[in-house]
Amino acid sequence: MSDVVQAKPDQGHGHEPKVIHFIVNSRPKSEPEKDISFDELVRLAFDNPPTGEFIEFTITYQRGQGNKPQGTLLEGETVRLHEGMIFIVTATDKS
After folding, report:
1. Pairing of strands 78-80, 35-37
2. Which pLDDT does position 31 carry in this prediction?
3. What's phi and psi for 28, nearest 5 deg?
4. Can you give the residue ranges of every domain in the chain?
5. Which residues make Cβ contacts (< 8 Å) with residue 79, sequence separation at least 6?
6. C-alpha–C-alpha distance, residues 86 and 24, integer Å
7. Burial classification of residue 85, based on how many CB atoms lie within 10 Å of its CB (0-12 exposed, 13-18 middle, 19 or more buried)
8. Most buried residue, 19, 64, 68, 75, by CB count within 10 Å?
9. How high is the pLDDT of residue 16?
10. How confident is the model over 14-25, as pLDDT tens digits?
11. Which segments in the chain show pLDDT lower than 50?
12. Is the CB of residue 45 less than 8 Å from the CB of residue 92?
């Protein structure tokens, strides 16, 4: 008798989440299909994000989906990832 337990296939949705490929500051990234937040994009853009009282981040995007294929993402907002999206994340010192 064997103690090996075989994994059962996913009986939930029946499929793996789609992986979306996109660009953040000229670097290729991939994530499961989802909404991505301002904070997540800052973390993806900078290995060590600049910090300080006067540091502000600006995020613009292109190649989005639907009726808003390009725009600016504000702190606290999210945007739905779309295959081939391009994000530009910049840090500014407002001192």
Report:
1. antiparallel
2. 96
3. -70, 140
4. 19-93
5. 35, 36, 61, 64, 71, 73
6. 6
7. buried
8. 64
9. 79
10. 677 899 999 999
11. 1-2, 4-10
12. no
Structure tokens at 56: 């502000």
At 38, is the secondary structure helix, strand, or coil? helix
Asked if 81 and 19 touch (Cβ cutoff 8 Å), the reply is: no
Q: Length of the chain in residues, anyone? A: 95
Residue 7's pLDDT is what? 46
Q: What ranges in 1-95 are assigned the alpha helix state H?
A: 38-45
Query: 7: which DSSP letter?
Result: P
Which 8-state DSSP code applies to residue 40? Answer: H
**28 torsion bin: left (phi>0), alpha (psi -120 to 50), beta (else):** beta
